[in-house]
Hints:
This protein has helices spanning 21-38, 43-59, 61-72, 76-100, 134-145, 159-171, 189-193, 207-219, 242-254, 274-286, 306-321, 353-356, 372-380, 395-405, 438-442, and strands at 2-5, 12-16, 104-105, 112-119, 122-126, 149-153, 179-182, 198-204, 223-227, 233-236, 266-270, 325-328, 343-346, 363-369, 384-385, 388-391, 412-413, 428-429, 432-433, 446-453. By secondary structure, it is α/β, with parallel strands linked by helices.
Amino acid sequence: MQTAINPTTGEVIQTYPDHTPEQVQQIIAQSHECFLKWRRISIPERSAALKKVHAVIMANKAKYGRIISEEMGKTLKEAVTEVEKCASAANYFAENGLKLLADEHIVTEYSKSYVSFQPLGIIFGVMPWNFPFWQVLRFALPSLMAGNVGILKHASNTPACALAIESIFKEAGLPEHAFRSLLIPGSRVEEVISNPKIVAVTLTGSTPAGKSVAALSGKYLKKTVLELGGSDAYLILEDADIDHAIKTIAASRMLNCGQSCVSAKRLIVHESLKERFERGIVEIFSKQTIGNPLDEATNVGPMSRADLRDELHEQVQRSIAAGAKCLLGGKVPEGKGAFYPLTVLSDVKKGTPAYMEEMFGPVAVIIPAKDELDAITIGNDSVFGLGGAVFSKDVARAERIAREWMESGACFVNMMVRSDPRMPFGGIKESGYGRELSAYGMREFVNIKTIIVA
Length: 454
Ligand code: NAP
C-alpha cells in the first residue's frame, strides 16, 4: 500500500494499492513488447513525440505543481518551476537527439569503421521524492529518445506524482507501455531487477539505497547508474564577494526546504569572513516565511516527511552536543506538519554529524578555514563527491581550485550548483557513478556498438 500524506497537515491524501507480483510481471512483458516497436520508430519521429511531451507538460504545469506541493511540501512556485524545467528538458532532447545519437566515424584502414548507438530495452528507474518530476524525467526523456522504454518505481510517498508522470507520456501519444509506473515498495525491487527483460537500472536516492540496489543489480548483472547523496562543500575564500556569496548560498540552502542533493551543505569560510558570513545567513534565514506551500507568501514549506524531519533534528542535536554553536533554529515547532525551522550551525567540528553526514534539510553548516589549502582539505574531507562551489573575486584562482582540486562530479565558480540538460550530472565517491543528462547521460543506456566494414 502506498500512502500519500500531506506533510503540511499530516493528513492522508490518498492510499493506493501496490501492484501485485503478477501485475509487475505483466507490466514488464507489456513494456518489452512496446520496446520492440518503439525501437523501430525513427529518431525524428521520437523527437516529434518528445515535442508533444513538452506541450503536455506545459499545458498541465499548474495541476502537476499542485500534486507535487501537496505530496512532498515544496512551495507551489518551486514546484511549477520544476515542472517547467522538465518541459525544457523534453525540448532539449527532442531538438538534440539526432545529434547526440549520430554515428561516430573513426578513421582506420577499413572501408568503414564507426560507432553506432543502439537502444537496449527497458530501463528501470528507482526515484526519490525530493524533485519528484525532475528526477524521473531526466532519466525518462533521454532513454525514450534513444529508443528505450522506461519503468518507474517512485518513492512510496509520491504515488500521485508517479501516476501523473505516466499519464504525460500517454497524453503525448507515445505507445501505451512506453513509460509505466509500478506502485511497489523498495523491498520489492528484486522482482523487477531479476526479470531478464530489464536491461539496466538507474537509482537516484540515498547512498544506502544505492548500495543495496547496486548489489542486487550486480547479482543479475544489470548495468547501473547511481545518483546518490551529497554534502557539497562551498568554499568562501578570503577575497570572495561576501554579499554575493551570502545571498547565493542562502538561496541554495533554502531551496526545496534544503532537501536537494546539490544544496550548499558545508559552508567552508575563511576565518576573516566568518562573523560577517554568519550574520548574513542568519539575517536572510530570519526573514523567510515558513508555512503552507500553496500560499503565495510562503518561501519555505514543510519537509517532506515527519520521520525525515525527526532524523534531521537528531543530527542537529548531536552536532550541538559535540560543540557546534546553534545561531538560529534548531527546535521542532509545535503544531501539525513536518516543519523544521531554518537553522544555522557554526564552528562545526570534524567528526560530528553536521561535518560528516548529509544534512537533508534546511540547516546551514559553517566550518571555518585558515587558508586556501585548509579550505580545500576540509572540502574534500567527505565520503561524498557530488557538487561543490568556490567563491572568490579572483576567478582564475577559483576556477583552478574547482577544476583541479575539488573531489566532486561538478564544481561551480561564484554560483550555486544546479543541473542543466546540456551538461553531464553525477557524482564520484559515495555520491555514485555514471552520469545523467547531455550526451554522456544519453550514452549510459545505449549499446555502444562497433561497426567495421572490410
Ligand atoms: P531513499 O530513501 O534512498 O529513496 C529513494 C528511492 O529508493 C525510493 O524510491 C525508495 O523507495 C527506494 N529505496 C530506498 N531504499 C531502498 C532499498 N533498500 N532497495 C530498493 N529501493 C530502495 O532516498 P530519499 O530519502 O527518497 O531521497 C533523498 C536522498 O536522495 C538524499 O540522500 C539525496 O541526496 C539523494 N538524491 C540524490 C540526487 C542525485 O542526483 N545525486 C538527487 C536527488 C536526491 P521507497 O520510498 O519505497 O522506500
